[in-house]
Amino acid sequence: MSLHTDELRSRRLAALITPHQLSEQYPLSDTMAETVLGARAEIEAILTGASDKLLVIIGPCSIHDPAAALAYAERLAPLRARYADKLCIVMRTYFEKPRTIVGWKGLINDPHLDGSFDVNTGLGLARKLLCDINALGLPTATEFLDMVTGQYIADLISWGAIGARTTESQVHREMASALSCPVGFKNGTDGNIQIALDAVRAASHPHIFCSPDKDGRMTIYQTDGNPYGHLILRGGKAPNYDEESIRQAAEGLAAVGLSPRLVVDLSHGNSQKQHQRQLLVAQDICRQLRRGSRHIAGIMAESFIEPGRQEVVNGKAEVFGQSITDACLGWTDSEQLLEMLYQAES
Ligand SMILES: O=C[C@H](O)[C@H](O)COP(=O)(O)O
Ligand SMILES: C=C(OP(=O)(O)O)C(=O)O
């Protein structure tokens, strides 16, 4: 055969480590597994309404520096314990970023921040960090964006998200139907909630899903369906955290036989990407909680050690503990946010 008709626009860079090889390097210990299984059960009870606790998914927009993320986790872990009677605090550990057009796609894709795309190193850094954080007794949350890389870390994740840009994607719904953790679906970037309601329903069904197995063999999986899919209101062209928007969304869930309990993202479209506005959104949510709202199962916040964001220059992020993607609340505001949520919970 002398003529080639495919692989004309791609070239091999390197072989990918297998999930099994990576988990041999960074194994899931019994302590970590207890953190994961305990948090998943807690979150499931919150989503069904069996528990009155508030789920709080909080942490950086993206992880770019494992040392800074671990320093943040070491601050957050004692607060998870302190507020455990009313809040279920889970750290955002986002390693894959969906981009509106192009941009840095996260620690797994480009761990050195310089376009060298050392994916095997990125996977190792991500898995090691998840082990370290779960070993602190702090559960972790992530967005599942890539169809392959989830297999390397899913055993260490207590809560998953499908993002606004992929909620309508059939393969992401199929992946969610297979995941062992509860999975939230964001409304669309334009504010469309219907696609997320459809996604929760689709993911609750069994599917045939093709994915690499833990040894990297392409495999046909039969999924069971995920009974803990739920809606995340993240705003769109306009915010959707107000009482009326939440009531309408809950009605939409109930109308199709789903639990009318949902998560509100304080950031993204709900804060119109102004990080400080997350506190204003939180005040409104606290007011709704004090008035006895049964629809708000949880919130998500973007928070790091330093407030705001920074640009990466020549592959370097100068400020320790500051986001390189969306701007985040700083630590002092994050502490205030958690105290405010705790006080609002009856
Ligand atoms: O949460 C992060 C961003 O909002 C998301 O990745 C999109 O980013 P972009 O619009 O800067 O590409
Ligand atoms: C990308 C994110 O959110 P969204 O999908 O809502 O834009 C995120 O939470 O990091």
UniProtKB/TrEMBL annotation:
Keywords: Amino-acid biosynthesis, Aromatic amino acid biosynthesis, Transferase. GO terms for molecular function: 3-deoxy-7-phosphoheptulonate synthase activity; identical protein binding. Gene3D superfamilies: Aldolase class I. Residues 45-338 form the DAHP synthetase I/KDSA domain. It is an enzyme of class 2 (transferase). InterPro entries: Aldolase_TIM (IPR013785), DAHP1/KDSA (IPR006218), DAHP_synth_1 (IPR006219). Signal peptide: none annotated. It holds the Pfam family DAHP_synth_1. It comes from the Bacteria. GO terms for biological process: amino acid biosynthetic process; aromatic amino acid family biosynthetic process; chorismate biosynthetic process. Its EC number is 2.5.1.54. It catalyses: D-erythrose 4-phosphate + phosphoenolpyruvate + H2O = 7-phospho-2-dehydro-3-deoxy-D-arabino-heptonate + phosphate. Pathway: Metabolic intermediate biosynthesis; chorismate biosynthesis; chorismate from D-erythrose 4-phosphate and phosphoenolpyruvate: step 1/7. GO terms for cellular component: cytoplasm. Stereospecific condensation of phosphoenolpyruvate (PEP) and D-erythrose-4-phosphate (E4P) giving rise to 3-deoxy-D-arabino-heptulosonate-7-phosphate (DAHP). Belongs to the class-I DAHP synthase family. This is Phospho-2-dehydro-3-deoxyheptonate aldolase. It comes from Zobellella denitrificans.
